[in-house]
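Weekly structure sync, notes
Attendees: PL (lead), two postdocs, one rotation student
Agenda item 3: pending single-chain targets
PL asked that the sequence for the first pending target be pasted directly into the notes so everyone works from the same version. It is reproduced below exactly as submitted, 204 residues in total.
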Amino acid sequence: MTIDSRRIATDLETNMNRQFFELVNNQSNILSSFESNIHGQLKTIQTTDNMKYSSMVDDIKRQGNESFHLLQQQIEENAEQVALLAFNQQPLVTGIIKFNDVKYSVGFNNLATFTNTGKIVCEKSGLYMITVSIISSTTASQFNIVLNSKMITGNRFVDGVQWHTGTSGMVLQLHTGDNIWVETDKVLSVSGRSYNSFSIIKIK
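Predicted structure, written out during the meeting:
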């Protein structure tokens, strides 16, 4: 082998070694980049899953808190005591009857309006039982239970005896702000003391 042949062989070997090392280095870089990308994707997936799980847990907690709050509110509303018993002490009544002698009241904060005007204002929505009883000596007359200016029921006194007893009872769904009262169609001569009564109680 001549000197030129040896030099060519040496250069060829050197070149092949360099290409081999470059190939190995490139493959190592590609593998490292691939591993880095895989790691990044796995981390992203894990972060996304954690966020979804955390969001799901937060939703469950929020729904649970809302349900508990609604249940607690319903229990408190059902446990509310709202009732009133009042009497009329005037011997003559006309128009709206004022039952201004309040014997018992719980859950009503605006009694002044009721005693001054005869109209009771619903402060808490619910199902109410209302009872009105009146004794009168005026015949051919009647009293009506009125809700928001609309007559709900009437009770008429007829001829026959000196004193007439009229009693009306009903159950109504009332809403906050509703006004309810008792009114007559003419002047009534009524028995005083505890014979003429108005009662209302929240039953649900």
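Discussion points:
- The radius of gyration is 45 Å.
- The mean pLDDT is 80.
Action: rotation student to compare against the earlier draft before next sync.
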